[in-house]
Amino acid sequence: MKERNPYCLLAFAIVLIWALWNYNVSLKLLAGIYDVLLPFVIGGCMAFIVNVLMKKLEQYWRRIFKKSVVSRFERPVCLLLSLAIIIGFLAFFVLTIVPELHASMKMLVKMLPPALAKLNIYLQQKAQELSFSADELAVVQAQAKEVYQTMLNYLQNNKRLLLEQTFLATASVLEVLTSCVIGFVVAIYCLLEKHRLARNFKCVIFAFCSKERAAYILHVLQTSEQIFRGFVGGQLVVALLLGVMYFVGMKLCGFPYATVISLLVAVLSLIPILGTLISALIGCFLILVAAPEKIWYFIILYIVLQRIEADLLYPKIVGKAVGLSELWVLAAVTIGASIGGVAGMIVCVPLFSVLYALLAEKVKRLLAEKNLSNL
Fold this sequence. Notes:
The protein has helices at residues 6-21, 23-65, 74-129, 134-157, 159-192, 194-208, 211-253, 258-268, 274-290, 295-322, 326-369. The chain is mainly alpha-helical. Helix 3 (74-129) crosses helix 8 (258-268) and helix 6 packs antiparallel against helix 7 (211-253).
């Protein structure tokens, strides 16, 4: 076994101590590195997601054309088809949702004045029923005016701060959009050169590591790629089934906007917890505008279907795709949410599955060495 260089260990220890001692500088340095690498990370994530569909299209391409002349156009054509399918679906989603939301907002604006008038009459009737005196009503009105004046004074006194915060928020959004555009270009280059990049990376691993360690690193990466690909596919299947269940349930119950809400639920369900809450709020808003008497039935339908998705579909389908049982999927989602919120929930399930698969292989090999494989 090759001995470790003591000078490298000493240098690493010095750098680590300096980084911990000057943690403010270290955090700024890490933030700068993160800003530089963010477009490439986004591009890698885009390339991975698109590659799930692209691989399927490449398989169909090879079956159809085999070794014909057009086989050399396999990668660019499959990439264009994958991007066209994804962009087309996103365009269909936006063009379906936005007009309905716009129409609902216009309807709400028309309904608002008479609704406020009815609310005013209702409050006056309640005030008469409760026998509020003129002095008590005056106190309530004075408190309401005081709250309004306090809010107005806050806005007037903090105009500069609000303007700065708005500018910073706009700059952050533009920075993220710029990173996404650069990431999209990086993703296209990675997908067009994926085999060459994989071969170069493999050469680097074997050049700087021993054969055994290089083989193990490649095995870990291959296992991770298979599990993450299964996770993405499982998420898409769950989203499709959930959208279909919402559509069927809403049609059977006679809810308005069945197509829009079911499509919205299917897309936003890819974001754990937060996506379902956003889709539920938008669905409640649409139904409240079109058919307010059915709002409670929609809430009941939402609760029932979300329990089916969380307790049955997600553990069964996603857990099977990544090789985890229902218990471990729920544990991974819980741990990921407590560590990293929404992003932690998304990443923790496939990451947990990779660790589980590697640990299972290690345990199986150790048991085989001890002749205890039948346990």
